[in-house]
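Page 42, continued from yesterday. The earlier attempt failed because a stray header line got pasted into the input along with the sequence. Redoing it now with the clean sequence only.
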Amino acid sequence: MQALDAMVKEARQLALGEVVPVPASTAAEDEVARQLQICNACRYCEGFCAVFPAMTRRLAFPTADVHYLANLCHNCGACLHACQYAPPHAFAVNVPQAMARVRARTYQDYAWPPVLGRLYERNGLTLSVALAGGLGLFLALAVALKGGLWQAVPAGGHFYDLFPHNLIVGLFAPVFLFAVLALALGVRRFWQAVTPVTGAVAVSGPAGAEAAADIAQLRYLDGGHGQGCHEADDGPTLARRRFHHLTFYGFLLCFAATAVATLYHYALGLPAPYDLPSLPKLLGAVGGVMLMVGSAGLGWLHLRRHSLHGDAAQRPMDRGFIALLFLTSASGLALWLARGSAAMPLTLCLHLGAVMALFATLPYGKFAHGIFRSAALLRYAVEKRLPNPVGAGGE
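This time it went through. Structure tokens are written below.
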């Protein structure tokens, strides 16, 4: 009960805009500060991405500044392969890897409720797939007790014959709403921490428009030179940017399909299933294919990434998120193909299990990086419009 009271109190503080203390620095933050002092003296990579122009506006790097800069970093690898002080040099400058370690810390430090921040350390590939499989198995057992997992479905039958609409809403809505709440409060804590060190002024219209364009275009996955990120070697490629676009917009289209279907059901009195060329089916089919191809491509690239890129300790979390995205999209498309067949009950259970696992892990998995990075880009668009406090550098 005390833990619940503490959660409610903190949520109220965040809603009222009260300041949440910035976490103390750790070895990861100190290492980023060390490397950025070297980078600030060199400035060879100043035009690569938003990190380096923002870096030149600082002479010191306290914790809040490091958290802000770490979430600006897109881990494209360009600065690592251009750096004359990269390993095996004694300075051992590896900005992408150092930033990745700090980003993981920010997800934990600003997570809401704080006690669940430790889930970032345990949310790996095995946990994600096991959770999806376990939930799918639970649903499969329920269907098996009802009539069988492999059974003939009447012509025109659909999955509401197996799981009533209200039951699905009752199961999924609380999980999804909690995920949205936890992410919103977590990024609000981050926003409160980095706003004072990025000018402490409100977001203007031009700044918001610029940040939105950078986010939508994934601008900083071009490597700073337009040729893309570095993956397995020092050769740049646009593959990661393209697969990210497919994944991002595929996810948005799938979400739009669900939103439109909800509107059809409650506002227009048109319950599922929907057939082509209905809008929910068009959005879901196109989005599902994009999401499946994009997540498969990101998984393939992740297996080939250079060993000096990113943080090896986060690979299970990264791959778990990619696996859940792929399972969700692939099982959704399979459910469409299996509609009205004997395979539909089992396929439905697998799809619902993957979706529930994705929702349950959203606030404490790799999905958070998109939210935190968007907030950092928004603050950068604000900060760059202010006079440089050290009178040097610039974008």
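Notes: The mean pLDDT is 84.
Reminder to self: strip header lines before submitting.
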